Amino acid sequence: MVLDAAERVIARDGNGASLESIAVEAGVTKPVVYARVGSRAELSNALAARLAERLIAAAGAEVGSTSRFDRITLAAFFRSSLETIGAHRELFLYVTRGASDDTPERTLYLAGRSAGPLADLLTRWRTRRGDDVAVAVPWAYAIIGMLNLVSLWWIDEHDRPADVLADQLAELVWSGLAAGSHR
Amino acid sequence: MVLDAAERVIARDGNGASLESIAVEAGVTKPVVYARVGSRAELSNALAARLAERLIAAAGAEVGSTSRFDRITLAAFFRSSLETIGAHRELFLYVTRGASDDTPERTLYLAGRSAGPLADLLTRWRTRRGDDVAVAVPWAYAIIGMLNLVSLWWIDEHDRPADVLADQLAELVWSGLAAGSHR
DNA sequence: AGGCCATACTTACCGCGGGTAAGTTCTGCG
DNA sequence: CGCAGAACTTACCCGCGGTAAGTATGGCCT
């Protein structure tokens, strides 16, 4: 699979990953990569989709298992996301701050892939509680964006443990999430 | 000033802004740009610094005027940031999702420029209230990151008014910020 | 079995953009 | 008047994404 090769060379070379190096890592040549996966932008999109899938899967394993949604679950969501991102540092960097001109779309696409399910979850949860639901989408993007930048910062020097950081993030937003119409 | 020319051409051409087009807009040639401002990465950095300065200035005008710090102030901070970003759409896109390989550093640099003062503010505020202060830095990054992605999403299709969105963001984090040690 | 077509790959190339080396004009000063 | 040096321009290199044209491989029909 070309995408696996791409991930390997990105993990190795960081953002300097060229189509050509990916091609040789995959054991083929450039036009083949182009034929299989399309342009560089589509490659980045595909990688972004995969990473998003992994994030969602990891989060789902935490959140989906319990039917409840509480502060602990939220912190677990953050922790699993942080750890997944930390396990794919270079890929995360490549995908979020990758090259190319298409980047606004891709960043939004990647974010949307995570924010969508989160927004659904929030919508269901707040509907059940009889709370206002219009905030679900912006809040989902807010939480994902928070996670994005904090991950970047966390990756790039500070080595506090993931679970501590996750708990701090949960502390920041939990009260807001939980505060209902009964303000 | 070369940077002004750069902003003009970015506002016009979006991310397709090449050094050459910036040079002709500035009325000079490429090596001159290179001599004055350094590499493309440094150009992006300088632009990022300027945008951060504007954001901080706008935020300071809102937050710094009142000595208090409450939900209203927080919402005003979000609103002014959103509006500043909205007024510099293309520049914001260029700077956050710009080209090049240096991007992790630059993104962090830009974010840090905003997150730093915010972290200071949070630290002072929570010190005065006798609350834990270790969360100030991660929270500052969290809030800036939130703002980043929400801005991207907001710019790119949804036209709800800035003040509504700002209020929703404030609602999300205010309780968390305000919740003290007396959990 | 032998020739033919399609598919799939490779080699070779183009264009563009960042970066730079070498040449050229302009300015001030002896 | 001539010279030194700074500042700018022209002309170029290189690397990368993208593609066109050529080449091998494998099946299929006669």
CATH level-4 homologous superfamily of the largest domain in chain A:
Tetracycline Repressor, domain 2
Largest sheet of chain A: none
Oligomer: homodimer
Low-confidence stretches of chain A: none
Distance between the termini of chain A: 52 Å
Order of helices and strands of chain A: HHHHHHHHH
CATH topology of the largest domain in chain A: Tetracycline Repressor, domain 2
Helix content range of chain A: over 70%
- Average pLDDT metric of chain A: 88
Structural class label of chain A = mainly alpha
Q: Give the largest interface.
A: A-B, 42 and 42 residues
Give the class-level CATH name of the largest domain in chain A.
Mainly Alpha
Number of helices of chain A: 9
- The outline of chain A comes out as elongated
* CATH A-level architecture of the largest domain in chain A: Orthogonal Bundle
Reconstruct the topology from this structure:
The structure is a homodimer of 183-residue chains.
Chain A: H1 2-13, H2 19-25, H3 30-37, H4 40-63, H5 71-87, H6 89-96, H7 103-129, H8 136-155, H9 162-178
Helix pairs in contact in A: 1-2, 1-6, 4-5, 4-6, 4-7, 5-9, 7-8
The structure holds a DNA duplex (30 and 30 nucleotides).
Polypeptide structure, described:
The structure is a homodimer of 183-residue chains. Chain A is mainly α and 183 residues long. Chain A has two domains: 1-38; 40-178, Tetracycline Repressor, domain 2. Helices cover 77% and strands 0% of the residues of chain A. In chain A, helix 5 packs across helix 9. The longest helix of chain A is centred in the middle third of the chain and has 27 residues, at 103-129. The A-B interface holds A 14-16, 93, 97-101, 103-104, 107-108, 111, 134-135, 138-139, 141-150, 152-153, 156, 165, 168-169, 171-177, 179 and B 14-16, 93, 97-101, 103-104, 107-108, 111, 134-135, 138-139, 141-150, 152-153, 156, 165, 168-169, 171-177, 179. Chain A binds a DNA duplex (30 and 30 nucleotides) through helix 3.
